[in-house]
Amino acid sequence: MRYGYFDKKKKEYAVTRPDTPTPWINYIGSGNYGGIVSNTGGGYSFHKDPQNRRVTRYRYNSIPMDRPGRYIYIRNKNSGEYWNPGYQPVQRKLDSYSCRHGMGYTVLSGEYQGVIGEVTYFVPDDKNFEIWHVKLSNTYGIAQSLQVFAYSEFSFWDAILDQQNVDWVQQINQGRFDDGIITYYPYHVSDNAAFFATGEKVSSFDTNLETFIGKYRSEGNPIAVEQGGCSNSISRRMNGAGAFCIDVDLKSDEEREMVFILGFAEDRTAIKEDIKEYLSPGKAKEALTRLKKYWDDYTGRLSVETPDEDMNLFVNVWNQYQCKTTFNWSRFVSLYQLGLGRGMGIRDSAQDTLGVMHTIPEEAKQLIIKLLKCQFTDGRAYHLFFPLTGEGGQGDAPVNKFDWYSDDHLWLILAVNAYVKETGDFAFLKELILYNDRSTSGTVLNHLDMALEFTRNNKGPHNIALAGRADWNDTLNLDTGKGAAESVFTSMLYCRAALEMVELCEYLKNKEQGIKYTGMYEEMKNAINSSSWDGEWYKRAFDDNGEPLGSKENKFGKIFINSQSWAILGKVADCDKADKCMKSVDRYLNSKYGIVTMYPSYNEYDETKGGVTTYPVGTKENGGIFLHTNPWMMISETLLGNGDKAFEYYRRILPAKRNDDAELYEVEPYVYCQNILGKENPQFGVGRNSWLSGTAAWNMVASSQHILGIRANYDCLIVDPCIPAEWQGFKAKRVFRGAVYNIEVQNPNGVCSGISKITVDGAEVAKIPVFEAGTTHSVVVLMK
Ligand code: IFM
């Protein structure tokens, strides 16, 4: 069943019924102030950090689901009936409903008894507040006397304490109202405030949640709305809310627009000045136009026209959009990652930079600097950091002395190299960046060198990388205290990282370092091949007792995906082994909805394997389709020239392909989710944990840089496609270092890969040069 469709022209996804199988959400804001908005208005807001600067509350796992949110109630003064344009929380059956999720904004629209209510949510100009632009239209044929209630529920800034220390939070909550602005702040705080404001004439207001909702009621039937007015409550304790009641009399065919602003102020005396120009509906709409322009520019730096419409939709709009969201929030805050405790992942954010590098490299650099600052002087890195304070951490309590993840630091090399290739900013490599002790600094190159050194200095019995607390797979917790468990995956990632350093050194003509990294790569590659080749594929790891995982000898977990794809990405496998790995993945792990992480799944808890065995069969890392791993297979297939296979894998997980079976898929069809239940699970095909996943960045890389083959290099732009043989070609526009490249790929002989000729502006070239910013060039690539 369908719950909506892609509006390609408007670059929106239109949800056509409110009862989606899970809340289908969108993000507003660009990484500073922002929040989550669901298709029925549910969700919450935060400023810079969802744990330490929570602005509004959300009740996870709540029944009814997806509450509270940013609610507009429309009440008919004569009948007393009230409803919401987004259906929730009143759940009045509407005469029509739609939700349009666009890039950085969401529009909810509902009609009831001749009144159309529309509310648009967005953050203007990267301000510390969000606009709710409300439009009412009376199509009833006679005048209507209405009331609009706008409502949100405040949270104490520290979202953990907000739930943990209810007595304290309820005793300190203060709400005030002054000249159209409701402020909420804890008693002891003298500068900050969350606020809710309007430029409309306020008939009544509430700053106290209990007063607005009423005892033993819910957002679905607030006493204030039912009675037709708020109580002008000034909260001196209990829970905070922002609620306004506005009277609206509409003649037949009349429209009325109004603006509400919800936000966070570091200086509460400045709120009035900060918001004043946005309180008028006209100015708010101008801000929305600017926001749309921002996103058009952001996505416009890469656009493609391929024979596959869904691929075009994703590369041009939705995948790029999701990449910015993962770049903003890593794995920190969604409807599944609750913005509590986890912070921004170092490995995650490093990978996220890859998905936005082609369009906002300067912002990517700033994030990379933050990540480098989370590195220890011995080369390893924290596992996460909190954006408000920059403080790093390792996540849960340490399990043993190997209190580090074996991979976090290695991803930094991939991120920095991608940045330098995109920008040519070699000076960055010499910039001094502090280590996390905040007293020692090293150049970026030192940081990268130490990242490799850490892994080199922490090898196990097979002379490959120790596993530490886990590698990319958080749930493979093999080290039970002996410090002997090893990760084949991390060893392969290390090979890839070492090769990227070799590449960089070659370009920098730094022979000595290049030789060092080549030696590191060779040594690791040989160790992997002598310890971890299993006959038809590579083993995945060794546990603390030296027992292999991912071997034909194992009853469960005989084969894992990551040690096959990374054998190619890390150039560990020779041709014969590479071919066998790919075939084994296809044979044992491929499925209708994507490639599973491993097979067969563990069927009971096993403390020598850890978290992975806490999941039921076919779930998440235990035999589920963990989508993040699929693009690594796509890239591997392209590196071997198999464009048909790479594209098959690409299409299998493309969310748009699940639009028509959304009832099974359950999650949003416009963004990638983290996981889909795997072929061994009775609910095979159900998706979960949408939005924040490395799947976004890596699918962007796989599709644009490897299938379409358009990628940056230190001194040129590469166009080296590996496409389905049946494609006759494709077109693309890529902005690279400020110049526009209009690319046409021709495939007259129906090959998957290989180039016979490149012309730039009509002249044949060996490589596509870097041009002056502001110029436009035409590139024609003829495949073999
Ligand atoms: O790699 C991790 C990621 O850091 C967080 N989510 C799960 C992934 C796989 O375990």
TrEMBL record:
The record ties this protein, via Pfam families, to: GH94_b-supersand (PF06165), Glyco_hydro_94 (PF17167)
What's the name of the protein?
Cellobiose phosphorylase
What GO molecular function annotation could you give as one example from this UniProt entry?
carbohydrate binding
Q: Where is the Glycosyl hydrolase 94 catalytic domain?
A: 294-709
* Boundaries of every Glycosyl hydrolase 94 supersandwich domain copy: 11-280
* Top-rank taxon, per record: Bacteria
Q: Does the keyword rRNA-binding apply?
A: no
Q: Which UniProt keywords apply?
A: Glycosyltransferase, Transferase
Naturally occurring in which organism (per UniProt): Ruminiclostridium sufflavum DSM 19573
Q: Does the keyword Glycosyltransferase apply?
A: yes
A GO biological process of this protein is: carbohydrate metabolic process
The cross-references to Gene3D superfamilies, in alphabetical order and at most eight, read:
1.50.10.10, Glycoside hydrolase, family 65, N-terminal domain, Maltose phosphorylase, domain 3, mpn423 like domain
Q: Which InterPro entries match?
A: 6-hairpin_glycosidase_sf, 6hp_glycosidase-like_sf, Gal_mutarotase_sf_dom, GH65_N, GH94_catalytic, GH94_Enzymes, GH94N_ChBP, Glyco_hydrolase_94_b-supersand
